[in-house]
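Support request, priority: normal
Reporter: lab tech (M.K.)
Component: structure prediction queue

Hi team, I submitted a job for Lipoprotein-releasing system ATP-binding protein LolD from Methyloglobulus morosus KoM1 yesterday, and the status page still shows it as pending. I've pasted the exact input below so you can check whether something in the sequence is tripping the parser. The sequence length should be 35 residues. Please let me know if I need to resubmit or if it's stuck on your end.
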Amino acid sequence: MLGFVPHPTVLIVTHDHELAGKMGRVLHMEDGVIV
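Reply from support: The job had stalled in the queue. We restarted it manually and it finished. Here are the results:
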């Protein structure tokens, strides 16, 4: 897990690129690697 708390920003980890593109601030999970 990440060693920090995203505050006040909410980060969403998703495999869905289309959904991720629609969200404001997103973490993409690529084969277990957060990019």
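The two ends are 14 Å apart (CA to CA). The first strand starts at residue 12 and ends at 14. Let us know if anything else looks off. Ticket resolved.
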